[in-house]
Amino acid sequence: MSTSTLPLAGKVALITGSSKGIGASIAKRLASDGASVVVNYVRSSGAAEEIVNTINTQGTGKAIAVKADVSSISEGKRLLDETVKAFGKIDILILNAGLMYNGQLADIDEKQFDEQFQVNVKVPLFMTQAAAPLMTAGGRIIFFSTSITKNTQVPPNYLVYAAAKGAVQQIVRVLSKDLGAKGLTVNAIAPGPVDTDLFNNGKSEQLIQFFANMHPQKRIPSPDEISPIAAFLARDESGWVNGQTIFVNGGFNV
């Protein structure tokens, strides 16, 4: 297949937090579909460069790595500026970077609350505000939520994380009306447990297996089982999908 006929040929995608995990998988998948990709990282420069080298070697898309701490609105906006500087435009914004602290009501403090809402809600919202004027009809904005938001067995220590991701889903609903009038779509992907550092951090093997057993297939999926959904939402043919949170969890909750 000629690269000019690939579904994302000529498109420019920015994926926050994309040096590893789901973000890295999305970057590689979009590049394989022909997109030029900005791989964002904070500390993992080596991992980011490895993703970039993989993409540039395969020859279907292009990639650069940009260091930016997206816990900061100003850094998020700079990341957008660097994307436009490198590739001339932005067509696809994927707000993958996230933060998760666990704590029940008695355990949480104001700092943890503020940090989770800053990274998971506030910065993605204001990056969208800055990106929207740069995007033309057919642009795609994809947030990340979590299947925890509709899990009846949600652990009580997911209090603030669930609240932040619930806010993301409401932002998606409202922005789809606002930006939909401009021809942009706004959606969210809500995975269940995925084999990433974010999910595995601080969990024992027994606890990870507990979550695996909640899936019909009794396993935890890889990031490569989530990225195809982002690839679909990024394509032109997904244009009638707008304002939706797509739960990708293998039946973890239904």
From TrEMBL:
<comment type="similarity">
    <text>Belongs to the short-chain dehydrogenases/reductases (SDR) family.</text>
</comment>
<dbReference type="InterPro" id="IPR020904">
    <property type="entry name" value="Sc_DH/Rdtase_CS"/>
</dbReference>
<keyword id="KW-0521">NADP</keyword>
<keyword id="KW-0560">Oxidoreductase</keyword>
<dbReference type="InterPro" id="IPR036291">
    <property type="entry name" value="NAD(P)-bd_dom_sf"/>
</dbReference>
<protein>
    <recommendedName>
        <fullName>NAD(P)-binding protein</fullName>
    </recommendedName>
</protein>
<dbReference type="InterPro" id="IPR002347">
    <property type="entry name" value="SDR_fam"/>
</dbReference>
<dbReference type="GO" id="GO:0016614">
    <property type="term" value="F:oxidoreductase activity, acting on CH-OH group of donors"/>
</dbReference>
<dbReference type="Pfam" id="PF13561">
    <property type="entry name" value="adh_short_C2"/>
</dbReference>
